[in-house]
Amino acid sequence: MDLSQNSAAGYWSTFRGCLKIAYHEKMLKENVNDFLESISGTSSRREYLTLEEVRQLANTPCDVPDLKNASLFSCLTGLRISDILALDWSNIVKAQDGGWCIRIRTEKTDTEATLPLTDEAYKLCGKRSTGPVFKNLKRYNTHAPLKEWVEAAGITKHITFHCFRHTFATLQVNEGTDIYTVSHLLTHANVGTTQIYADIVDKSMRDAVERIKINDGAKPKGKNKKTDETKDK
Known about the structure:
The protein is built from eleven helices and three strands; from the N terminus they run ααααβββααααααα. The model has no long low-confidence stretch (mean pLDDT 83). It is 46% helix and 6% strand. The radius of gyration is 25 Å and the shape is globular.
């Protein structure tokens, strides 16, 4: 079976991690990793939605209401699907400033975080109750039903649920939120992981290229042939 460069890099990294553990636990006499080369991954494109496309989705009916609410919730919070599926009403509490916040331990990075929650995001959770917030959201709902909903909204991009997390990060950077704050909101262990979103929509780069314009709106110099002919008459 052929593997992509990134898949091969991921599997190889996991294998080397097991070797490292085995060495530290004295199951191996020497660190085999010293004799192995790493496999570098390649930069993959992170698909995301524009704010206008998010609004298109919000105005488009979805056969699975909890899928729609959870997707828009992810666009407003940046939470991964694993953390949204595990989100319990007990995780949503009042913050010291009077607003709402989420207290979670992320599944992927095992990081404890307290994240602010906007009133708009809180309303997407529905009526306050106990147990899971999005009770009818299942992983299988994030495939075919999601694809149908996105297509119904007239969006032609290949959108997976994880793209909503990319959307949150990209929109935040685009609106001027500094990269360190975005990194904390995404619960990234390393700000370098977050930097890719800044590279996607680096406003300073766009401002730089916009400074050079060939057509400045000024009228072209030289005689106007039609005008000259009129004067001759």
